[in-house]
Specification:
globular; disordered N terminus; 5 helices; five-stranded antiparallel sheet; Glycoprotein, Type 4 Pilin; about 25% strand; alpha+beta
């Protein structure tokens, strides 16, 4: 389930809130008139802040490293049982303490502040070995309730603390939908971090639990990703969730997720906002 406590690596393909192929692809679905970003309802794209709504990522290249709660029953699985199992698995995989979350939030803020000021930023050594483990994360920036930037990695390639610092900087400067965050804006930004579990292959779409699972769709050279909170925030059921994901991936074929050529993978997330770790 979604748990709510509510730099570097140039050249790697990242997921962001945008729905088009690019070196920095953003966590957003460009969908008229709904755009799904780390919290986005409305039309995406352009250089103005997109309205806030849901966290999601996309990239149209078939690479695996992408810098991008009421649960619906999956088949015959009882929602309560499934949710409890997912929560236990999340705690076992990550086990992030309140202090670790607080430290990562401070790290993300420092990285964005430096980026907005045009300064270099080197992440300090983390306080625990847990934060040195490889991890995948998204950082979402909002301003006045509107999305201001959202970029992250889907697959863990670097230590979690390095990933958070890198994608925070990228969310501030490299989200293709927005102009770079300025130093004057920094004080008005709202931060959210999502730490992801490793993606798992989906054999049957009925396995996907709305409100628990984020989904990565690969279809030929196209890819699209939604973070787990997206369908719940948008009020979608499973089929609507996957339909929007096809569109987000740039696949115009109706119900492309049913095509044998489509590959689905799911993941979960621990999500917390700045208010949760004050």
């Amino acid at each position: 389930m979604i748990q709510r406590g509510r730099g570097r690596g140039r050249g790697r393909l990242r997921h962001s809130c945008a729905g088009r192929p690019a070196m920095a692809v953003a966590a957003l679905l460009i969908l008229a008139p709904v755009c799904i970003a780390a919290s986005c309802k409305g039309q995406g794209g352009g250089r103005a802040a997109a309205p806030a709504g849901a966290g999601e990522a996309s990239a149209a290249a078939p690479r695996e490293q992408e810098k991008a709660t009421a649960a619906e029953p999956g088949g015959a699985t009882d929602p309560g049982t499934a949710a409890a199992g997912e929560e236990a698995a999340m705690k076992e995989k990550f086990g992030l303490t309140h202090e670790e979350k607080k430290w990562l939030m401070g790290l993300a803020k420092d990285a964005v502040k430096a980026a907005a000021s045009g300064k270099e930023f080197t992440p300090p050594d983390p306080p625990t070995a847990n934060l040195r483990e490889k991890g995948a994360a998204f950082v979402t920036l909002k301003k006045g309730g509107n999305l201001r930037g959202c970029i992250g990695h889907i697959v863990a390639r670097v230590p979690l603390f390095e990933c958070v610092a890198e994608v925070a900087r990228s969310a501030a400067l490299e989200d293709p939908r927005f102009s770079p965050v300025t130093a004057a804006e920094y004080g008005s930004l709202h931060f959210e971090i999502s730490v992801l579990t490793p993606p798992q292959d989906v054999k049957d779409p009925a396995e996907i639990v709305v409100g628990t699972d984020g989904v990565l769709l690969s279809y030929g050279f196209n890819q699209g990703v939604f973070l787990p909170q997206v369908p719940t925030e948008q009020g979608w059921d499973r089929e609507e969730y996957l339909d929007h994901l096809c569109f987000k991936a740039g696949v115009m074929k109706e119900k492309c997720w049913k095509d044998p050529k489509a590959k689905l993978r799911k993941f979960q997330a621990i999500v917390w906002e700045q208010e949760d770790v004050r």
